[in-house]
Amino acid sequence: DAGVTQSPTHLIKTRGQQVTLRCSPISGHKSVSWYQQVLGQGPQFIFQYYEKEERGRGNFPDRFSARQFPNYSSELNVNALLLGDSALYLCASSAGTGMNTGELFFGEGSRLTVL
Amino acid sequence: GENVEQHPSTLSVQEGDSAVIKCTYSDSASNYFPWYKQELGKRPQLIIDIRSNVGEKKDQRIAVTLNKTAKHFSLHITETQPEDSAVYFCATESTGFQKLVFGTGTRLLVSP
Fold first, then answer.
1. Burial letters for A85-100: b for 16+ Cβ neighbours within 10 Å, e otherwise?
2. How many helices (H) and strands (E) does chain A have?
3. Which residues from B are below 8 Å from A59, CB to CB?
4. What is the mean pLDDT of chain B?
5. Is A73 a residue whose pLDDT tops 90?
6. Which of A87, B14, B90, B94 qualifies as a cystine partner to B29, CB 3.0-4.6 A?
7. In chain B, which residue's Cα lies nearest the Cα of A107?
8. pLDDT tops 80 at residue B98
């Protein structure tokens, strides 16, 4: 069984550019979450989508947006990149429904470097 | 807002020793407490979790204890092995909030 897959694995952008990161959840999982992990820190919650609807949003600026498609895959978009956006972006899927996320299964992440 | 503190930030032990990592949290509504292991350059992987209606859970060499009154929970690894070397993160989740709040991580080094 394929786990959570993310693309691209690595990318380099310059300040002011825009980036789109993609995620395919584990088959059967309808919940997708995005986390940002800065080097040396724990993952920080950005978004959670369930059945194509945004269910939660972390403390990130409006430059960050996301969406979930009918096949439950998801995209994270970041506009007007800043140096501080350099991080590992982790996508996680879950079979959880209702009020709690349940066990999260993480992808390998997309490492974004902003120069 | 929610806050999870994790200690120690680094922990060095000899193979065969026990390791204990502790986390405290601020949100009294927290009801789910997972622990993730992240090896260098790899994804975080769930190693054990506990819900608020349980005080302790064990899985082979790994155990987690929860004290809801004091708002802290701990990871215990016995008979450590070099392959246990990694960064360990605790996390919390509250009812009605579909997100995990992670601690700052503990780098565990097990020396042979």
1. bbbbbbbbbbebeeeb
2. 0, 11
3. 1
4. 93
5. yes
6. B94
7. B43
8. no
Q: Does A36 touch chain B (CB under 8 A)?
A: no
DSSP 8-state symbol, A25 = P
Task: Enter the tokens of residue B77.
Answer: 């690894």
Residue B99 and residue A48: Cβ atoms within 8 Å? yes
- Spatial separation of the C-alpha atoms in residues A59 and A36, rounded to whole Å: 11
Instruction: Provide the pLDDT for residue A99.
Output: 56
With bands split at pLDDT 50, 70 and 90, how would you rate the model's confidence at A2? confident
A48 closest CA partner among A84, A109, A108, A101: A101
Out of A101, A105, A108, closest to residue B99 by CB: A101
Chain A residues whose CB is inside 8 A of the B103 CB are 42
How do residues B24-54 score in pLDDT, each as one tens digit? 999 888 889 999 999 998 999 999 999 888 8
